[in-house]
């Protein structure tokens, strides 16, 4: 493994997609600095911030001054850099690592796409709202939650017997989807697991 970074900076805003990154940093006990980006005031569009993250969004993480953006990429890097030695992320070359990569990507991409469909059809601009599209999105989410429920019926945590960063990452996405209106409560194993994930001290960190 390469030398540990000397400086980690998280650019964040409260109650945003940066919150799971703050929780991961807390769970992994990674020393870091936080810089708040006031997205309501448009600070994410300032040239100095766009130089770090051309998308003009949070989160951004800088590692010894070098920027990273996209929450999934940041989470996977944190897992590899800090999680393995702390027993919270599977080692490279193991079947568990393959599952971790797969389920984390599933949460952000496959499940995340359905979340966006539901959000736009129920909470987006008036011209994009549609009861039919919302019902279709909920049906898609219900099917995906069924897959997750079956996995959690067979084991207590995403990767088996022990909690890992995969639980934090997937749980953060599933937890957000509850707010959007995903039918999580219909899936008892997912609901019970999510309650355990959200009860961890690191998940109470605001960021």
Features of this protein?
2 domains, alpha+beta, four-stranded mixed β-sheet, Glutaredoxin, 207 residues, Glutathione S-transferase Yfyf (Class Pi), Chain A, domain 2
Can you describe this structure?
By secondary structure, this protein is an alpha+beta fold. The chain has helices at residues 19-28, 47-50, 71-83, 95-123, 131-154, 165-180, 188-198, and strands spanning 8-12, 33-36, 60-63, 66-69. It has a 4-stranded mixed β-sheet with strand order 2-1-3-4, covered by helices on one side. Strand 3 (60-63) and strand 4 (66-69) form a beta hairpin. Helix 1 (19-28) runs parallel beside helix 3, helix 4 (95-123) runs parallel beside helix 6 and helix 6 (165-180) crosses helix 7 (188-198). The model has no long low-confidence stretch (mean pLDDT 94).
Structural class: alpha+beta
What sort of overall outline do the alpha carbons produce when their principal axes are compared? Answer: globular
What value does the Rg take, in angstroms?
A: 17 Å
Helix content: 40-55%
Q: How many DSSP helices? A: 7
Q: Can you tell me the number of structural domains?
A: 2
* Proportion of residues in β-strands: 5-15%
Looking at the structure, the CATH topology of the largest domain is Glutathione S-transferase Yfyf (Class Pi), Chain A, domain 2
The strand line-up of the biggest sheet is 2-1-3-4
Biggest sheet details: 4 strands, mixed
Q: What is the element string, with H for helices and E for strands?
A: EHEHEEHHHHH
Mean pLDDT: 94
